[in-house]
Amino acid sequence: MWLKKGVGEDKRWFYPISAFSVGVIITVTALWTMFYPHIQVHFGLDTTATIVLAATFSGIGSMILAPPIAGIILDKYGPKINFLLSALFLVSGHILISRMLKMNDWSVAMYYWYIGSFLIGFGSGFFAGTHTATVGKWFPDKTGTAMGLAVAGAGTGTIIYSPLVAAYIRTNGFNGMIFLFFAAISALAMLVVMVPFWRTPEHDWLPKSMQGKTRDARAAVGKDYTFEEATKDTRFWVMGICFVCAAFSLMFFAQNVTLIILEGLSANTSRETILTTVIPLFLTIQASSGLIGRFSWGVISDKLGGPWKTLWIVYLVPAVLMAVFYLGYNSVFLIYIVGFLFFFFSGGEPVIHYAIVPHVFGRRHLGKIMNSINAFTVGVGIASGPFVGAYIKDITGGYMLALILAIVIRLIGTSFALYGLRLDKKRRLEELDEAHQQ
Length: 438
Prior knowledge:
Layout (H helix, E strand, L loop, with lengths): L13 H13 L5 H12 L5 H29 L2 H21 L5 H33 L4 H9 L5 H16 L4 H21 L16 H6 L7 H5 L2 H32 L5 H34 L2 H21 L4 H15 L1 H14 L4 H31 L3 H38 L1
């Protein structure tokens, strides 16, 4: 049956490598912040919230709705159907947005913008919810290394796309061909790479390095919680508060950053220079530092002694850097330097979030526990952060109060991360005592 055909054990590194490559190609919503000022000009808008609202719809699709559906299909049929659906939604969304740019009336065009962004997020969610779980099935022995490589592709395409798109806009203007290009490469990546070659292993499959060592491997892992047991554990809810605070503040900043830069530099730099030179380079720096951060923080976490000891760091430092960014956002040099540091530290968030759930609750029921936490915390933060920040800016006329709110929320997340660290230490000691008594 074609659903079971694909690359086997002897070439299993194909999975994280191809996931990284396709992630680079199709995960383009990090560029949306580059397009906001152009959309303002195209439709003659003075406000920003109605434009940034697209990030909310994209987040709902990518984090809240698509991954749980993708997980159900994956467990029953494997990854191929999900990748076909991903291609369908990605292509449909990009085509809708390309048609939007042929319109002049924002009251009509905005619905194309919102629906198109939702469909692109929905397609990205099918991809993300499928490739991470599939890589996890193929790498029970090297999960961290393989997963770090697989997820690092998301957002990395900005390094390539931002200067190319900026050059295209300078030459040809802001038009729908940009999105038709993204539609074509999304379909190509899914239909040529993912659908033909990806499959899941048998449920009882183990790599040769683990065969005959199952008991030893299980002994090295902590208690496996059921979903019901996890929800009765205080750490589950502490983790949820941490995730939603971090996602809200990060997505507010990331999805509004071009407009924040415009606010800071407009007094001394022409709008054209900001849009065609400063912002594309900043987005390239953002993607590069995020890539380095995603690769680095898994290793740093292991050296520091685990995800709880790392989580508060990747929350606290970006909170401080957001304040520094705003204080120095009149300087192009400071924007680049602080931006690099911010996205390097915040690049550790998804890595630590993925690592902390199995660290606390084990792996047997990981899919259900992790999807529940992510969908209703990270998903809510991603969906609400960009719009709330832009809405406050529209009301107040600047980003200062919105940034203060984002910093305060992030500091709340930091406090709960430190509280979770203390809870986890206490619970680990209790589990050791229980083991000794047995």
